[in-house]
Amino acid sequence: MIAPRTRLQFPLHQVDWALADAWADSIEFVVVERSGNKRMYKKKVLPGRHIYVELDHVVGQLLLQAWIRIAWWYRVATLFSLPEELNIDQEGLPKLFLIWADRLNNSRVQQTQLRARAGVNRLLAMFSQPAI
User: Fold this and answer.
1) 103-126 and 17-26 are packed helices; what angle lies between their axes, rounded to 10 degrees?
2) CB of 106 closer than 8 Å to CB of 98
3) Looking at domain 6-126, which of 3.10.620, 1.10.3470, 3.30.310, 3.90.1570 is its CATH number?
4) Mean pLDDT (10-residue bins), the chain, 132 residues
5) Which of 18, 77, 105, 111 has a CA-to-CA distance to 50 between 20 and 30 Å?
6) Residue 73 belongs to what H/E stretch?
7) pTM: predicted TM-score of the whole model, two decimal places
């Protein structure tokens, strides 16, 4: 089974939130949550599949979480063969999904994973971290 969220933690003395917000704007993410040391971004337009990236800075460490939330109606259309959340760093999908869903939907979810991974890798490069 695929783990629900991609989690990365690395040392970072200070986060430049303006830089993170500029990254989000450049790849069409919007801020859905903003507090002192935390930001959550969401991809604007992906029918049935929404990409989330959360940055949480605590005591010199940055915790980055990224996941794809599958809409309830998309899960119904695929006979609930997809979980509510998928991570972005693991190739492939559950075998149950491949059995029950058509190849077109499988391809769309994999494209969403690739798009999410590419966006997060751009952010990781800004923080001088290795790509996933």
Assistant:
1) 150
2) yes
3) 3.30.310
4) 80 91 94 93 84 94 94 84 84 50 61 90 93 91
5) 18
6) helix 72-77
7) 0.84
